[in-house]
Amino acid sequence: MARFPEVYQDPQWEPARQECIRRANGLCQECMRKKKIKPGKEVDHIIELTEDNKTDWDIAYNPDNLQYLCTDHHNHKHNRSNGLQDFLIPPES
Ligand SMILES: [Zn+2]
């Protein structure tokens, strides 16, 4: 979550985040796809942020590019089992 702090500190972020949570009814959308009901924890960018797109409103702040995930699904998507991976593996393009 701290990879692009300027996005999360932008005043546009909070309303986008709230809209995403509201749309998801506060539930993890990936769990919902598996017909499980589990509260969400993290708002995730479906198209991941990069240095190139972080200033693009449609990527960074459009609720259509956001999904609400539980911690498990968020960690799974970002493969955060090893905190160094974000630095060692370049983002896929
Ligand atoms: Zn989940």
Q: First CA to last CA: what distance? A: 19 Å
Helix content: 25-40%
**Major beta sheet, strand line-up:** 1-2
Write down how many β-strands occur, each being a DSSP E stretch of 2 or more residues: 2
Relative strand content: 5-15%
State the shape: globular
Which residues sit in consecutive blocks of at least 5 with pLDDT less than 50?
Answer: 82-86
Sheet having the most strands: 2 strands, antiparallel
Structural class determined from secondary elements = mainly alpha
Number of helices: 6
Question: Which molecules are bound in this entry?
Answer: zinc ion
User: In total, how many domains does the architecture comprise?
Assistant: 1
Radius of gyration: 13 Å
What does this entry show, briefly?
The chain is 39% helix and 9% strand. It has helices spanning 5-8, 13-23, 29-33, 57-60, 71-78, 85-88; strands at 42-45, 66-69. It is globular and about 35 Å long.
What order do the helices and strands come in, and which of them pair?
Layout: H1 5-8, H2 13-23, H3 29-33, E1 42-45, H4 57-60, E2 66-69, H5 71-78, H6 85-88
The protein binds zinc ion.
